[in-house]
């Protein structure tokens, strides 16, 4: 299996542990990844401000991947949702596609059809498969409860992303379970982490985060597990920033899924960059068989 890896902007700048752990796990699984240094922003930051400019930015990346003839694997759920949305619109509106291609022509590109766009979790679940992954587990977790956080952009709109059932998803839960951990039932599992409004309405953003943390703890979770850099930043660095010394024992540390999976596969903590998480998650090893 070979994929063209789309890292996006925030992962190399702010959540390097996600890329490091993902590459380590993919390599261990024998999955080949190619990089294209010409990739640029997916367009998500202006998606709801200037639709056509967003589509030009997204189409540039899609055209690059189309020329390479390899399926795209995306780590960021915001990038994944944006690229899927762009492909959905461009494939259904020829006039819009012509206008976007007129802008792309200056770069020597043309968007004709979208390459296959897959999120990391989709690749692991569908392409590698649960049984094959489970065979690679050498240190399964024991009595570890995980609050699995799906995020928003991969699930919705469901008819565009086709990631999982948007109201009753199971893909991420199953990927967590194969490590030996339990994916706990929690009411706010599918709610927003609060990251989209950080810097605009900080009180609202942190309120959403606090509610999710409280709900996860109430469900008996030991850790949060995510697969999106924005969600990880919110539950890791922002949660640390929100915490007061007297409240630190009431936090719920987060890790990205490749870290959770990699540890269960017997990989070392430094290989998975656990030290780059703002909140301490080293004690997760106490749950390992």
Tell me briefly what this model is.
It contains 11 helices and 8 strands. With 289 residues, it is an alpha/beta fold. The two termini are 30 Å apart.
Question: What is the overall pLDDT average?
Answer: 96
As for the number of domains, it is 2
Rg over CA atoms: 19 Å
What CATH architecture of the largest domain do you see? 3-Layer(aba) Sandwich
What class do helices, strands and sheet pairing give?
A: alpha/beta
Strand content range: 5-15%
Kindly report the spatial arrangement of strands forming the biggest sheet. 2-1-3-4
| Shape by Cα distribution | globular
CATH class of the largest domain: Alpha Beta
CATH fold-level assignment of the largest domain: Rossmann fold
N-to-C order of helices and strands: EHHEHEHHEHEHHEHEHEH
Count the E strands.
Answer: 8
Q: What level of helicity do the residues show?
A: 40-55%
The biggest beta sheet reads: 4 strands, parallel
- Number of helices, counting only DSSP H or I runs of 4 residues or more: 11
Distance between the amino and carboxyl termini: 30 Å
Q: Are there runs of 5+ residues with pLDDT below 50, and where? A: none
């Amino acid at each position: 299996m070979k994929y063209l890896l789309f890292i996006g902007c925030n992962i190399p700048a702010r959540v390097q542990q996600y890329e490091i752990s993902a590459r380590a796990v993919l390599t261990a699984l024998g999955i080949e990844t190619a990089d294209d240094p010409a990739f640029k922003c997916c367009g998500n930051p202006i998606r709801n401000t200037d639709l056509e400019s967003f589509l030009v930015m997204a189409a540039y990346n899609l055209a690059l991947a189309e020329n390479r003839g390899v399926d795209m694997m995306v780590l960021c759920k915001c990038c994944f949702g944006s690229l899927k949305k762009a492909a959905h619109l461009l494939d259904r509106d020829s006039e819009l596609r012509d206008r976007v291609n007129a802008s792309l022509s200056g770069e020597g590109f043309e968007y004709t059809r979208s390459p296959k766009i897959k999120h990391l979790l989709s690749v692991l679940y569908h392409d590698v498969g649960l049984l094959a992954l489970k065979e690679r587990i050498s240190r399964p977790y024991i009595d570890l409860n995980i609050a699995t956080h799906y995020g928003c952009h991969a699930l919705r709109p469901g008819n565009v992303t086709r990631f999982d059932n948007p109201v009753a998803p199971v893909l991420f839960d199953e990927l967590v379970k194969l490590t030996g951990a339990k994916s706990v039932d929690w009411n706010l599992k599918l709610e927003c982490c609060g990251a989209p409004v950080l810097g605009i309405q900080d009180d609202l953003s942190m309120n959403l985060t606090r509610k999710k943390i409280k709900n996860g703890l109430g469900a008996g979770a030991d850790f949060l597990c995510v697969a999106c850099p924005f969600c990880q930043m919110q539950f890791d660095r922002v949660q640390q920033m929100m915490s007061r010394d007297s409240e630190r024992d009431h936090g719920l540390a987060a890790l990205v899924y490749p870290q959770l999976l990699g540890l269960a596969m017997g990989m070392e903590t430094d290989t998975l960059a656990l030290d780059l998480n703002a909140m301490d998650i080293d004690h997760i090893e106490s749950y390992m068989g």
